[in-house]
Write a structure and sequence with these properties.
alpha+beta; Protein Transport Mog1p, Chain A; eight-stranded antiparallel sheet; 6 helices; 8 strands; 43% helix; globular
């Protein structure tokens, strides 16, 4: 009788251990599935048709900058595929659109309001929307991105750009012997999902720093991430 009780207790313990093991396995599998689902959601491209509605708010705007800027007359407009064709030429423009799956874009110009501010005198910002993140990655690659295709002396690429999925920081300068003034322009381009953003700050060398332009680009990135969070 005592032996039977021992056998029964052992059997119950084995069943209980099996149940615990099954529960642990189920929890582990559930966690893996949850992580995979969350990963697939977090890596999903933004819907081009939704971004098209909001893209004028996702470029750099006057309120995004610490100094006072204004939008000049006709200073912002849709950056449609036709504009790309006009800029690059019909053949290269259409090749770019087909290769990258470009959908649409928006462009804005900003002018510094106060001459005494130590800040770029001029900003330009664009956002381009692509069908997929692969298209955006191709658009910023050496095969298609404008900084790599500049005729004559190319701009100088720099380190220190860590915005979005891929990021470029580069600058160029021009010295005027007649006035002894040097104008510089710093440009930041970054991709996020299926978007390509470009921010350019230009002015006298005393007014323009890479950090100022990088901070402006970071602000645009933050707006896009906030938009993405609100659209889910």
């Amino acid at each position: 009788m005592k032996k039977n009780k021992i056998i029964l207790v052992v059997a119950v313990m084995m069943v209980f251990a099996t149940i615990l093991s099954a529960c642990a396995l189920l929890t582990q599998v559930s966690g893996i599935i949850t992580k995979k689902v969350a990963s697939s959601i977090s890596n999903a491209d933004l819907k081009p048709e939704d971004v098209q509605i909001a893209m004028n708010d996702l470029v750099l705007r006057p309120d995004d900058l610490p100094d006072e800027y204004r939008i000049p007359p006709s200073g912002e407009s849709r950056y449609a595929n036709l504009a790309v064709i006009n800029e690059r030429g019909e053949l290269q423009g259409k090749k770019y659109i087909v290769a990258t799956g470009r959908v649409d874009g928006w462009r804005i110009n900003l002018v510094r309001s106060n001459k005494e501010d130590i800040a770029p005198s001029y900003f330009e910002s664009t956002i381009e929307v692509f069908e997929t993140s692969e298209g955006a990655a191709l658009a910023i690659s050496p095969d298609w991105y404008k900084a790599y295709l500049t005729e004559g002396e190319p701009p100088t690429l720099e380190d220190g750009c860590n915005i979005g999925n891929a990021c470029l920081l580069y600058h160029s300068s021009k010295h005027d012997p007649a006035t002894n003034l040097t104008t510089v322009r710093y440009e930041v381009a970054f991709t996020y999902r299926n978007l390509l953003v470009w921010v350019m700050g230009r002015g006298l060398d005393v007014d323009v720093t890479p950090d100022y332009v990088l901070n402006a680009a970071q602000t645009v990135y933050d707006k896009i991430v906030q938009y993405e969070s609100g659209s889910k």
